[in-house]
Design goal:
The chain has 14 helices and five strands. It is of the alpha/beta class and 290 residues long. Strands 2-1-3-4-5 form a five-stranded parallel beta sheet, with helices on both faces. 34% of the residues are buried. It has helices at 9-16, 22-33, 37-40, 43-50, 54-63, 69-82, 96-116, 120-132, 143-155, 172-176, 197-205, 227-232, 252-268, 270-287, and strands at 136-139, 162-165, 184-189, 210-215, 236-239. The chain has two domains: 9-88, Arc Repressor Mutant, subunit A (Orthogonal Bundle), CATH 1.10.10; 100-287, Glucose-6-phosphate isomerase like protein, domain 1 (Rossmann fold, 3-Layer(aba) Sandwich). Helices cover 54% and strands 8% of the residues. α9 (143-155) links the parallel β1 and β2.
Length: 290
């Protein structure tokens, strides 16, 4: 890079906005309105979009600290793949009906492609482990926390000891320190996750719990293993796809996996599972909850 600038390319743009030439400022505003465009456009296409010259694009990326446009585009792609919604917004003019059908189609494809790589035997093995566990720990941050809560609520109807992390008012260390032999930990690693998750996976690996990892992070081709898989060394690796035609990830496959896992646990719980469900229903009636 041509200077000591650091940070995401958006942070770099913001840091130089006050000193830009008018044509460079027009290019910067175009990128800030649709920051994901630079990841898929050529220098010429971006220049046309912003109504500036190719020379302006070259000067601009060098001002940001990149050697050339390709280097800037690579940085943009890396940021886009990290999952920030703002980097996935497109300037496309697709109509609402077509956009809706694209979302539905992509959701279906995500489910089909995910379950093409996840066997029913894997799901059943994890379901059995959940039913036999002393406690089930389900861990998720940001968007993944919603799926952790959902899965916890479903499995909680069958397994008496289910804890979703993080717990309000409690540190992760206080929770992880309670994990015991015979426990099962289910970790969601969905983009964009928090910075401490790989470290937490490493700590979970040191516990006696058996671990499952549900993730949409693609492994690098040179290793075939993600940083979460390497840190956690899970017994169950359940990779899901969350591709989307728009700025927000499509989590249809994640929810379907949670549903299938809970359903298989119910179906395999036998008389003890039905007994617990009946007891819960009796309490619903006693408390007049429904």
């Amino acid at each position: 890079m041509t200077n000591a600038m650091s940070g995401s390319y958006i942070a770099r743009i913001r840091s130089v906005l006050h000193s830009l030439h008018p044509s460079e400022r027009r290019l910067a505003d175009t990128i800030l309105n649709f920051p994901g465009e630079i990841a898929s456009y050529s220098a010429t296409e971006l220049a046309q979009l912003a109504n500036v010259s190719n020379a302006t694009v070259t000067r601009f990326v060098r001002r940001l600290g990149y050697e050339n446009f390709d280097q800037a585009r690579q940085a943009a792609r890396a940021t886009q793949q990290g999952g920030a919604a703002v980097f996935r917004v497109s300037s496309g003019d697709q109509g609402p009906e077509a956009a809706l059908m694209a979302q539905i189609t992509q959701g279906r494809q995500n489910v089909e492609n995910s379950f093409a790589a996840i066997s029913l035997a894997e799901i059943d093995d994890l379901a059995d482990a959940v039913l036999q566990a002393g406690r089930v720990w389900i861990i998720g941050f940001r968007t993944a926390h919603a799926f952790a809560v959902y899965l916890g609520a479903q499995l909680g109807q069958l397994a008496p000891n289910v804890t979703v992390l993080p717990v309000a008012g409690q540190t992760l260390a206080e929770s992880v320190g309670s994990i015991s032999t015979g426990d099962v930990a289910i970790v969601f690693a969905l983009r964009r996750t928090v910075r401490q998750l790989p470290g937490l996976c490493g700590e979970l690996r040191q516990t006696p719990a058996r671990a499952a990892l549900i993730s949409d992070v693609a492994p690098p081709p040179e290793t075939g293993v993600t940083q979460f898989e390497e840190a956690l060394a899970p017994q169950w690796r359940l990779r899901v796809q969350t591709n989307a035609p728009g700025p927000l990830f499509n989590h249809a496959a994640v929810l379907t996996l949670c549903h299938v896992l809970a359903t298989r646990a119910l179906e395999r719980s036998g008389p003890s599972g039905r007994k617990r469900l009946l007891a819960i229903e009796a309490l619903h009636d006693s408390l007049d909850e429904f």
